[in-house]
Amino acid sequence: MKITRRNFLKLGAMAGAGLALPLGALSVPAARLGASSAVRSPRVEPFAVPLPVPPVLRPVHTDATTDHYEIVQREGTQEILPGKKTKVWGYEGIFPGPTVEARSGRRTVVRHTNELPVPTVVHLHGGKTPPEHDGYPTDLLLPAGGAHGAGHTGHAGHGNTSEGTREYAYPNEQRAATLWYHDHRMDFTGPQVYRGLAGLYILRDEVEDSLPLPKGEREVPLVIADRTFREDGSLYYPSLDPDLQKPGVLATAMNGFFGDTVLVNGAPWPYLEVSNTKCRFRILNASNARVYDLALDPPPPGGEPFVQVGGDGGLLEAPIAHERLLVSPAERFDVVVDFSRYRVGQEVTLKNLLGEGRTSDVMRFVVARREGEESAVPERLAPEQHFPDPETAETTRRFFFAAGGAWGGMSTINLRVFDPERVDARPRLGSTEVWELSADPQHPIHLHLAHFRVISRDGGPPGPYDAGWKDTVFVRGGTVRLAVRFEGYRGRYVFHCHNLEHEDMMMMANFEVV
Fold first, then answer.
1. How confident is the model over 192-210, as pLDDT tens digits?
2. I need a surface site. Which of 2, 10, 37, 137 has the fewest CB within 10 A?
């Protein structure tokens, strides 16, 4: 294991705080852990508030090739728990942030202004983006006006630092898909996303437009995230330093922080009135660490309530029916639910089968009215997608993801902690490689830039939730093999666990496309 001076100091600080854990202490499956805090949120009546929908951001101007947007990262106050005020750090001061809707083949430029007291980094998750706009963890956007302390600039020497404002340019040379943008500041991604720095980025194209899938009010985003609140409504997160100048979390959160209140689009256990027709849901797990096993209660007559039409990388070639949906952090599932299989007036609860107590519920649908059906799920959704062929792979790489233990709780890839100066793989532009990912105990793994196809799990076929192009894969112990295509841009990118506490504990590595 390579321990740099910076890593050694971080480990020392954690050991001094009494955070060292015995090897093997993190062997409890992350999906089944409950709230990782002695703090308990105030009681909230479930299914009492309507589901909000994040506003769609409008461009400040457009030209022949580009839509230009402006976003201010700032503190805001919103009523998340009924009757209580919560301060959030949000894009435009709201959580979730405004949705950006873009067109495939048409460039998007977003000018971010940082009015928060800490540096930020913006990553477009799932985007095929040039490295200088990808949100590398040390490419810091410092607060406007120089309002940052010495602790905020510790990584500036490793990245391309801006102060006050920064433009992120997205070519959108990829298929329609549900992407999302979120903070990616090194060592602090967990607390900064938790405070609200996340929003949807929906990319559309003519192929998707031509399909008779549900549209308009029957196409609904569901951003699912768990949080814990203090009695006064403020967010609780177990940072060692609430000012986010020094990294680290309390030992109870080292395997990921699990809140006790499930939010959907920023509302606790909301309800949505639907017609007795098909509805399309773009589901994003925006939680720091919690995995959801989603099911409808009661299930519709005949079963298989979810018809998956898309995933991380956009539309599937053909729909897939599911009884349940296993969604790890950062994964997206684009599904259609046919509410005509329920009677008008019926209430249907979206459950989390991995939850306990209050976290076993997510939201409720109320079949409130009859309407004519205007949509359908065709047998063919997208043209042949030309997935990478593992037989043509130039090399096979193996990476082992291990959580916690011997180094004060640090998480590792191939027993090495993250070092911005070290590159662990140099794939060639345009090449296909096979990556074998193994995990102890389980980790959602995300690759920047590169999309991939899952080709096997533990020597067998891919799992039921592995279909289509992926950018995040849930490795549930054992080994998952990926056929990865590296295309678009040369440069340095990262891959990491998307359990954000594991990421901040340095379960991340560099690859450089050459």
1. 999 999 999 999 999 999 9
2. 2
